[in-house]
What does this fold into?
Amino acid sequence: MHSLRLVASLLLVALLALGLGGCSRSSAQSKKLNVSGSTTILPIAEESADAFKAIHPDVTVLVSGLGSSAGIEAVSAGTAEIGTSSRELAPEEKSNGLVDFPIAYDGIAVIVNPDNPVSGLSLQQLRDIFSGKIKNWSQVGGGNLTIDLVNRDDGSGTRDAFQKLVMKDAKFDPAATVLPGTGQVRDVVARAPGAIGYISLGFVKPRFSSVSVKALAVDGIVPSEKSVADKTYPVGRVLHFFTKGKPTGLTKEFVDFVLSGKIQKGVVVDAGFIPIAEGGAR
Amino acid sequence: MTDKVTTPRTHGALQLVSRATYVREWLLAALFFICAFFFVLAVGLIFIFVGVKAWPIVTDYGIFKFIGGTVWSSASNSYGILPLIAGSFLVTLGALALGTPLAVGTAVFLSDVASDRVRSFVRPAVELLAGIPSVVYGFFGIVLLRAVVAKFTGTLGFGAFTAWIVLAIMIVPTIAALSEDALRSVPEGIREASYAMGATQWQTIYKVVVPAAKIGIVDAIILGMGRAIGETMAVLMVVGNAPVFPRGIFAPLSTMTTQIVMDMPYAVGLHRTALFAIAAMLFLFSMLLVASVRLLSRMRG
It folds into this structure.
């Protein structure tokens, strides 16, 4: 009787050991780099990763875009070596020992359907539209059409920047549609006549998409690489890489690579962003 | 472990099985016990984990402020889930209203109307629907259905209505398969008796067979509801994710499950606790649904 119980419990122990053994293996140092965060920075990160892998074939660079807050969260928790963010650190995030590497400038373009006759809005009008005060395009010189707000999710760096630069103290209309990625906002606005949303300037031109959107002038300034770089366009911001502590080894190599002229003048410009050297200190 | 295997069976002085057989059967019984108990353990652990993580919502935030609150906004540290509950129920009940007649109709067709040949391709088709990953439904919903709804209503196309259609298609296989089982378990003799009294096929179906299988069908609908209320990916892609009370079926809204997914990547502190509390609420709902199914099965048995 006892020996049988013993066999059964041994079986259980063996099963448990098998289960635990599976977990404890992954800590070994492999040549893997995890770059995670902002969906805005995704094109820069992905193309840089590809170029980096071409030079270092033994290195795997994993790039993912879950939003800026998720990136900062990941690098703080140590699940990613580099967190990408399209916003500054929040006060409570500053104590995590993150080191900031500005990698590019970006403008946030307010986009509407190409059929929309409105071509520009003031900051005040934008604030009233996105807080839900203005509900019809006819109130800002457009046709008699309901304004359909498309907002980003709370974890988005683009939303955070838009809040700071455009909304100031005003609150976003909570009844607005919330979409979790830049690509989705672009796609929905491109197809809905009354829609308005905001995306990074780099995504306005139909580079990956067959449908187009129209970027509005803000306070009379058309968003372009030039107007963002010389800071006349009012809705501009800095894109960041964050590392936990001073980067070393592979992480440092990758950061330096992205800041190098090759990526800055190539990938960054191609993706519609402004190289960090050209904007000066903001 | 049961008595049957704890001692070798004997008949007078005669031992019926060898020691080896007895040992083998004991081991098998132990193995099955471990298999079954594993899930009891899993459910218990999940319940405890979610409960512990969610508990600060009671002590630090207030359960009534949580369940009765109308504003969900991490920016202002306000976590009221009433709009999310409303959204979940609007989406679920609408999907059931659309899906149930479709599913029960399909079940009646498969059990009482269709010929063997027709059944042989209708049933696999319905079963296939159950195997499609929900993200595929969501993708279909956002790319195709949303655009159609947007065109006809002049809105963005996000909202309860789009979710209803996507969810209705998703829950049909569950409800249809279980309803068909219930209809098939109605004894053939009852149908024959009905025909013998001169009833037509249609009269037999809706006066005799369906009422006889009623509890089984309600059972199926409740399980379908469980699937609908817990569905996340497909709903996330089509509801528009605005955490406000639904202002109509073509306006964006948010549900309990979708809010968890939207906020999970970056939630910390009380925000994260609130997400666990939503998970606990969903756990309670599903417990309630399972309990009602068990109760109904007892009535049927």
